[in-house]
Amino acid sequence: MGLPKHGFVSWLVGVLFLCTLLLCVADIHYYEFFVRESNFTKLCNTTTLLVVNDSYPGPEIRVRRGDTVYVNVHNQGNYAFTIHWHGVRQPRNPWSDGPEYVTQCPIEPGTNFTYEVILSDEIGTLWWHAHSDWTRGSVQGAFVILPAENETYPFPTPDADQTIILQSWYNEDYKQIIDQALATGLAPRQPDAYAINGHLGDTYGCPNGAFWH
Ligand SMILES: *[C@@H]1O[C@H](CO)[C@@H](O)[C@H](O)[C@H]1NC(C)=O
Ligand SMILES: *[C@@H]1O[C@H](CO)[C@@H](O)[C@H](O)[C@H]1NC(C)=O
Ligand SMILES: *[C@@H]1O[C@H](CO)[C@@H](O)[C@H](O)[C@H]1NC(C)=O
Ligand SMILES: *[C@@H]1O[C@H](CO)[C@@H](O)[C@H](O)[C@H]1NC(C)=O
Ligand SMILES: CC(=O)N[C@H]1CO[C@H](CO)[C@@H](O)[C@@H]1O
């Protein structure tokens, strides 16, 4: 009889230990995403893009391992879309898609939907992006998951970190480019420029392309 009792105590200690490590320090975060068409002037050309909070790339989500994230997505644009939490497993949540892909109804223009993203053991820099087709080209951003409060990095603790997002830039309606590629079965044409965190750099020969734009 002593053994099962001992087993139970070990189990309880295990749960409490896990709780201290992860669950009990896990936080809940709330984000608001306003998705709409927004104008960007680059390479002396103004292009309209569907983006989150008028920002290209979109806002970064920065949380810790084991946290829960609620993202209230308001669709103020002209197209329906869903948001995919790329690399986050969502076995318990059929309304978010991860590798265990579950089809979700798109968020229609003029409506909003709150995603519940339950993190478990994911860690590192993932990303979120819209579905489908062309919307992911501009409705996207980083999803940074730091170690839990009392947890160390799986490598020497960095002094600082910087998120770098590489993107293709088109001087043209991105939707048209992707629609055309899908219709013809051919790859999209070469982009007009490449961007780092939405900036084109100062080598493209147009003041609008400068790094500070
Ligand atoms: C998006 O914009 C709204 C309204 O300006 C703001 O309240 C919200 O915090 C912004 N979201 C993010 C993730 O920056
Ligand atoms: C973007 O630019 C187009 C064309 O100049 C204009 O019709 C539209 O109102 C602008 N949209 C926004 C959100 O400023
Ligand atoms: C829509 O947004 C409102 C206000 O932010 C919020 O109270 C409501 O719960 C949201 N609805 C859904 C379905 O997420
Ligand atoms: C702006 O983009 C359009 C479409 O790609 C192109 O025809 C036009 O030449 C561009 N204008 C400038 C000033 O680069
Ligand atoms: C959030 C949390 O559990 N913080 C603890 C991390 O560890 C230090 C030292 O052991 C504690 O003082 C904190 O309370």
Automatic annotation (TrEMBL):
Residues 35-148, 162-205 form the Plastocyanin-like domain. InterPro entries: Cu-oxidase-like_N, Cu-oxidase_2nd, Cu-oxidase_fam, Cupredoxin, CuRO_1_LCC. Keywords: Signal. The keyword Signal applies. The keyword Aminoacyl-tRNA synthetase does not apply. GO terms for molecular function: copper ion binding; oxidoreductase activity. Belongs to the multicopper oxidase family. This is Laccase-9. It comes from Durio zibethinus (Durian).
